[in-house]
Amino acid sequence: MSFKVLASTENMPYADWLALRKLGIGGSDASVICGINRWKSMIELYMDKTGQLQTDDDAGEFAYWGNQLENLVRAEFTKRTGLEVTLVKQVLQSVEYPFMLANLDGEIEHPEYGKCLFEAKTCSAFRAAEWEGDKLPDEYQIQIMHYLAVTGYKFAFIAVLVGGNTFKWKMIECDDELIAIIIEMEKEFWNHVQEGVPPVLDGSEASAKFLNQRFPDSVPLSKIKLPLDAAVLIQQYDAACEQMKQIEEQKTEAENLLKEMLGNNEAGVLGDKVMVTWKTVTQERLDTRTLKVEHPALYKKFANMTQHRRFAVKSAS
């Protein structure tokens, strides 16, 4: 595959960079389309690409610190490997598949493998296990294969700073079979974007949000005839409601029996792992608003108070 430069990102305002991303599918989008991204759903990505998703106000700050740490990771990689990383201040576009874009963290001219791409990451210590040995988080594996597809390079290097104090790097080889699958999935998704037809909706909050934004108001006294497919969905909905009712009853039954075991005690422990609590909580009844406004001192002294016990099951610390 071959690529061309779509735009230079040097000194590009963040808002312009966001607008540029809507022109195609980037590396971080690939894992969403493949259904393995833990932070974003496909319908959210569709809303983003079609201008229906509001940009997070904190995204600029997040991107700023991401870039600062990226510089640190890049420098440490060169220090440990001796391989120089060249910055790529451009958005690249596949010639064969113009909807595929790449914004690389860097390139490496390797003495044995030729031109390779470089990717810098940071993650919390809670995700350290995902980087042990030959492991690589699935979303980053997909991202790198997307970049290799755009550039045509055969190898990539990825470096990560884990928990702010552990540095690791890995080399990844091009997987043509996986790339072919990614391209087909991205092609299908981009058809949805171009045709203005959302991907199949699911039970995610993103799907619900999309529908609420697309159909914010109902037309008074309007009625339509539903298709036959609706019968299956109605049956599914009714069955789910019944299951939820049964589950809620089971939960309440367990809670009541545990409360009976606790009696007047505040907590109970099962072995050294589980603690059950039923604590008394005091709450102020805000039913004396006039007193509160006109005589705050008296309100503070005589405001009605109520007490109830709050139940919880949690791991014992």
Describe the protein's topology.
Elements lengths: L2 E6 L5 H8 L5 H7 L8 H8 L9 H23 L8 E5 L6 E2 L3 E5 L3 E10 L14 H14 L3 E8 L3 E8 L2 H20 L9 H10 L14 H34 L4 E4 L3 E11 L4 H6 L1 H7 L2 E11 L2
Parallel strand pairs: 5-6
Antiparallel strand pairs: 1-2, 2-3, 4-5, 6-7, 8-9, 9-10
Helix pairs in contact: 2-5, 5-6
Which structural class is indicated by helix and strand composition? alpha+beta
What is the CATH topology classification name of the largest domain?
Answer: Lambda Exonuclease, Chain A
CATH class of the largest domain: Alpha Beta
Biggest β-sheet, characterized? 4 strands, mixed
Total domains: 2
CATH architecture of the largest domain: Alpha-Beta Complex
Strand content: 15-25%
Average the pLDDT over all residues and give the rounded result: 85
Q: Pick out the low-confidence regions.
A: none
Succession of helices and strands: EHHHHEEEEHEEHHHEEHHE
Shape: extended
How much helical structure, as a percent, in the residues? 40-55%
Oligomer: single chain
Estimated radius of gyration: 27 Å
**N-to-C CA distance:** 55 Å
Helix run count: 10
* Strand line-up across the major sheet: 4-5-6-7
> How many DSSP-defined strands?
10
